[in-house]
Amino acid sequence: MLIDLGIAFGRVAFVMLFVLNVAALLGWVERKQSAIMQDRIGANRASIFGFRALGLFHPLADTLKMLTKEDFRPARADRLLFELAPVVSVFFALVAFASIPFGDTLQVAGRVVPLQAVTLNVGVLYVFAMLSLGVYGVMMAGWSSANNYALLGGQRAAALMISAEIAIGASIMGVIMIHGSLNLMEIVRGQGRLFWGWLPAWGIITQPLAFVLFVTAGIAATKRIPFDMPEGESEIIGYFVEYSGMKFGMFLMTDMVETIVLAGLSTSLFLGGWQIPFLLADGFRFPWGAGITLSPLLVTVLQVSAFVAKVAVVIFVLMLIRWTLPRFRYDQAMRLGWLGLFPLSIANIVLTGLALAAWGNR
Amino acid sequence: MSPMNLRQRLYLVEVLTGLALTAAHFFRNMGRHAARALGRSGSRGAVTIQYPEERRPFSPRLRSLHRLVRREDGSPRCVACMMCETVCPAHCIYIVADEHPNPEIEKVPRRFDIDLGKCVFCGYCVEACPEDAIRMDTGILEFSSYSRGGMIYTKEMLLSFEPADATGRPRSPIPLPANRRV
Fold first, then answer.
1. Does A54 touch chain B (CB under 8 A)?
2. What is the pLDDT of residue A320?
């Protein structure tokens, strides 16, 4: 009993610490990566005892600043919803990562432990449900601020997220059809198969169109540039215009956490999750016959590192997109969502169905 | 603007072109940063000039903070002829003349104040000076103060400044506002 509790605690703690720490680090990554892309240096002045550590202390300084700033509430704001909105926003972003697997099973004290915070047979639906609930925080923030610009931002965010969620849901249908499961662990295990003995059956190879659609719609759902009309820095500032201090910081954190969830989800669905090509439960088995036998613990460590590395690469690409493309106009984003992504993902479902009917399931 | 062709309207190809450009910048700059961190010199990974430590090289013609040129004995070369005070379009120079102990020299300034809050840095005072006693070659641009009074530089302060070196880097300490609360 105690051991079971400890194992459950460990699984949740690993995911929680991973998400929170990477979210804190993302602020630094975003600043530095954008700076290097633009031939700049980026924030590097915050120091502790003279050590600057490439500006790594800036997230710390930012957090301290936000915690010590005045927590202002407009006089006519709806008090309950105004206080609740950032909490709702950040909570649903944080819990969304729970069913994303970061490794295969691990033997602990005679028990087989799947390496994900919560084992759910509807994992995919759970992640999308949590990400969709996040829009309530945004809408609450927009409405309760008693500010027309905030209301506009909240309304834009709601419209954008609905048009993006539909495209996301439809684009991953192909992946679910191939694997016949909504369990993210099963989907990742299914991607360990090899085509013709050498080509890993990752989602990006079986479903290339769905990958592009999913990432595009995913960026839209996380409201980041080029889909940041809910904020629209130069136009309406957006749903958090009346927020200050750490409440504003929580909206910023929601952004970062949602980026990590999107990266984790695209890794699990399309990039083979924790799979390393040719790595089986007992070591490497290469298609030309060679093999390296590894202990189960080492295999697990390799798998978790592979997952983290893949998430890091996806986050790099997402940041690259965020710092390269200019913002869509509101009508352009709507047209892209409803007339571009949605019909294409429906076509993808039809094509996948035809292919499965022609060549059979696996 | 001409209508977009199919490739541009598909958007994806153009997006990938843009991403390739920014990614190329990222990896090129990362390589340069890494090479410099490993001690290999080469071109810099960023165009940033890290200002308080690094300074942009200034032109020798730059008109910066004034200084009064000294004679060999350290007294000002200025003879208080009032030429600069007369030509100054901003009326920011205030001179009080005094007898010079040496009979060969006509006068010496007892006070020579420049109100930098008014100065427009036209350089007329330098051009007008018959004795080459005032120059604007210290290379100092960072004079600031918490008060208007702090912007008035006296004769002693102006005499203490050295000319900038060949790259335009000031050799005199930069007058910090905290040191000059008046």
1. no
2. 93
Res. B1 pLDDT band, cuts 50 70 90: low
- Give this prediction's pTM: 0.84
- What structural domains and CATH numbers belong to chain B? 1-48 (no CATH), 67-180 (3.30.70.3270)
Q: Tell whether B22 is within 8 A of chain A (Cβ).
A: yes
**Which tens digits make up the pLDDT trace of B95-130?**
999 988 888 888 999 999 999 999 999 999 999 999
Mean pLDDT of the B46-74 span: 87
What number of C-beta contacts closer than 8 Å exist between A and B? 43
- Answer yes or no: are the C-beta atoms of A280 and A294 closer than 8 Å: no
In chain A, what percentage of residues exceed pLDDT 70?
A: 99
- Please indicate whether, in this complex, the C-beta atoms of B15 and A325 are within 8 angstroms of each other: yes
DSSP string, B104-168: TS-EEEEEEEEETTT-----HHHHH-TT--EE--S-------SSSGGGEE-HHHHHHPPPP-TTS
Q: Which of A39, A212, A325 sits opposite B25 (nearest CB)?
A: A39
The beta-carbon contacts of B40-46 under 8 Å, at least 24 apart in sequence, are: B45/A36, B45/A39, B46/A35, B46/A36, B46/A39, B46/A40, B46/A41
- Coil, strand or helix: which one is A121? coil
Please report the ipTM that was assigned to this predicted complex: 0.83
DSSP alpha helix (H) spans, chain A = 2-37, 58-68, 79-95, 123-144, 148-171, 173-179, 184-190, 203-206, 208-221, 245-270, 296-322, 330-335, 342-359
Distance CA A196, CA A311 (A): 27
pLDDT confidence band for B177 (50 / 70 / 90): low
Handedness of CA A203, A208, A212, A213 (dihedral sign): negative
